[in-house]
């Protein structure tokens, strides 16, 4: 299994990094040639976000990140990603790959995507979306 990792730089080149290489490296040896391990960076960002959340309630505007799962059909999960404490138009930045292209570094993209909290609501496929 391969993971596609974007290499930071003007050309935004894509490089294939295998799961076996990640397992051998463990984020410390940087065998993929990247300046930092994107997996560890994502983990550290998620820990920082979890520290800012108080309790089970997360509030913020949702960018256009809504996913309908298929497991358990006809009762499927509806996943909604929310950047905590981000409101209005600013939330769109968290899910805008076209806007990121050439504008954001790998670090910035990882921070944006990793700081989103995803919750889910089980819904029946024939019902309306919960409000």
From TrEMBL:
<dbReference type="Pfam" id="PF04894">
    <property type="entry name" value="Nre_N"/>
</dbReference>
<feature type="domain" description="Archaeal Nre N-terminal">
    <location>
        <begin position="31"/>
        <end position="127"/>
    </location>
</feature>
<dbReference type="InterPro" id="IPR006978">
    <property type="entry name" value="Nre_N"/>
</dbReference>
<dbReference type="InterPro" id="IPR033167">
    <property type="entry name" value="Nre"/>
</dbReference>
<protein>
    <recommendedName>
        <fullName>Archaeal Nre N-terminal domain-containing protein</fullName>
    </recommendedName>
</protein>
<dbReference type="GO" id="GO:0006281">
    <property type="term" value="P:DNA repair"/>
</dbReference>
